[in-house]
Amino acid sequence: MFYISARACSVTSFAANMESNESLAVDVLSEQNLSTTNGDCTNELPTVQEYLDGLTLPIALIIATTVLLSIATFSIFFKNAYHILHRTPKQFKTKSILLLTIYPLVTLFGVVSISVPRAFFLCDTVMHVYFMICAYVFFSLCMQYVDGEDALIKSTDSQTFSLRTPPLCCFVPLFKRAPVTKNRLRFVRMLIMQLPVVQTALFLALNVVFVEDYPNFNRIILYFVPLIVISILLGVWGLNILVRMLAPLYSDLKLMGKYFVLQAVLILCRIQPLVIAGIVSSSISVCAYPMTLQVQKNAIFQLCLCFEMMMLSCWASLLYKSPSTIGPG
Questions:
Q1: Cα–Cα nearest to 246, from 238, 236, 255
Q2: CA angle 32, 278, 312 (to 5 degrees)
Q3: 256: pLDDT strictly greater than 60
Q4: Which of 37, 103, 108, 157 is the right S-S partner for 309, CB 3.0 to 4.6 Å?
Q5: Cα torsion angle, 67, 71, 77, 95, sign
Q6: CA dihedral over 250, 251, 254, 257, signed as positive or negative
Q7: How far apart are CA 145 and CA 99, in angstroms?
Q8: How many other C-beta atoms are found inside a 10 Å radius of the C-beta of residue 74?
């Protein structure tokens, strides 16, 4: 009987210790989660249900505003498309509409990015890749404007080809202006053509990393950044060479303005998030899951981007009217 009583006391003591340890572990985990959420602000993205359950009034107003801006941008696009289909020469219609599509597309995926936080990188990828496709479409449209490469070569008998253009002008200071040749145009074409190919491959790989290893995504993406930046610099260099070569010869086509409203999309989508992230991080101190700092940054960025796309769409509607002349102006 004494042995059984001793065993019972031992079991009771062991159970009490286990219960105490479990309670301590729960308290420690709770403290860690609380500090991650309120102190360092968790990087975890909420599900749609969690996001809707914790939706705040400012974020709801941002979503409503972006939806209205997106509708306005689509309305401008349809008006522009109608004008192009009825008044622009046939050979320019398809490519002009493809270039104008980028503005409503960005606003549409901006709304999706705000509404579904975990889809923000996929939406960013679609916008980024479509811009790269538009870069090559713009090159093709320019060649159509001047009746092809052969006609361009025949019409430019002066020294109009120059590699000393931004952003790589500092790296090629010894190259002088030269006449336009088939090989030089092919070089420019390859600089621009690599954009959709290289950027699509890199961003597809990053999306796989985002899905499979999100906790380490911000660390892994650093290895991709140099490749992304080099590819973009080469592509923008090719576009600058093209526009600076053609704009003085074909002034009625407004190529410089058309190039700017396209390039502005890349600048706003790639540089603006860094500025907004710095402002939001320094001005917003509340970071309660599911309205994490990442969610708030993305919401403010997409709101600004949707407004800017609407303004660019209005500007593009003035530029993409039918050219008054085809040929040197």
A1: 255
A2: 130
A3: yes
A4: 103
A5: positive
A6: positive
A7: 15
A8: 17
Query: Distance of CA 189 to CAs 14, 73, 201, 266, Å?
Result: 76, 31, 19, 19
- The pLDDT tens digits of the residues spanning 137-149 come to 999 999 999 888 8
- 2: confidence class by pLDDT, cuts 50, 70, 90: very low
180 and 152 Cβ atoms separated by less than 8 Å: yes
**pTM higher than 0.70:** yes
For residue 287, pLDDT over 80 is answered with no
Report the candidate in 93, 45, 32, 108 with the shortest Cα–Cα distance to residue 310: 108
Minimal CA–CA distance to 72: which of 327, 312, 325?
312
Q: pLDDT tens for residues 104-156? A: 999 999 999 999 999 999 999 999 999 999 999 999 999 999 888 888 888 77
CB 184 within 8 A of CB 178: yes
User: 119-154 b/e with 16+ CB inside 10 Å = b?
Assistant: bbbbbbbbbbbbbbbbbbbbbebbbbbbeeeeebbe
Rounded average pLDDT over 48-59: 90
Cα separation, 216 vs 290, in Å, equals 20
Q: Which of 308, 294, 169, 303 is nearest to 241 (CA)?
A: 169
Query: How far is the C-alpha of 148 from the C-alpha of 150, rounded, in Å?
Result: 6
* CA 194/CA 103 separation, integer angstroms: 23
Instruction: State in Å, rounded, how far the first CA of the chain is from the last one.
Output: 112
Contact assessment for residue 131 and residue 265, using Cβ atoms and an 8 Å cutoff: yes
What six digits make up the tokens of 18? 């286990």
